[in-house]
Design a protein that fits this description.
By secondary structure, this protein is an all-alpha fold. The protein contains one helix and no strands. The chain is rod-shaped, with a radius of gyration of 43 Å. The termini are far apart. The model has no long low-confidence stretch (mean pLDDT about 90).
Length: about 100
């Protein structure tokens, strides 16, 4: 059997160890909460940056699409002009031929 003093001393040592463990856990928890706040702030900043970049990408995509549509319109108009010029040239060919024949 244990002597009462030994039993009290054993209980005291266990209580001291439990208090030390509790303090260590509280300190570790504070560090983790601080780290969590820093990470949450970093995440918030990253999300803001992602939103900004996403808006910028949308703008660039819209500009590219608009430029492409403008290019398509320009090609269509250029083709029309070339066809018109070719028709004028075709009209002129007989006149040039007749001029050459008269010489």
């Amino acid at each position: 059997m244990y002597h009462p003093n030994e039993l009290i001393q054993d209980i005291q040592e266990r209580l001291d160890r439990m208090v030390r463990d509790y303090r260590d856990i509280v300190e570790k928890n504070k560090k983790l909460e601080t780290e969590n706040k820093v990470l949450a702030h970093s995440l918030e900043e990253a999300l803001k940056q992602q939103e900004t970049l996403s808006k910028r990408l949308d703008t660039v995509s819209q500009e590219t699409l608009r430029d492409t549509k403008g290019l398509d319109h320009w090609k269509t108009e250029t083709r029309k002009e070339i066809r018109g010029i070719m028709k004028e040239v075709e009209k002129c060919i007989p006149q040039v031929e007749s001029l050459l024949e008269n010489k």
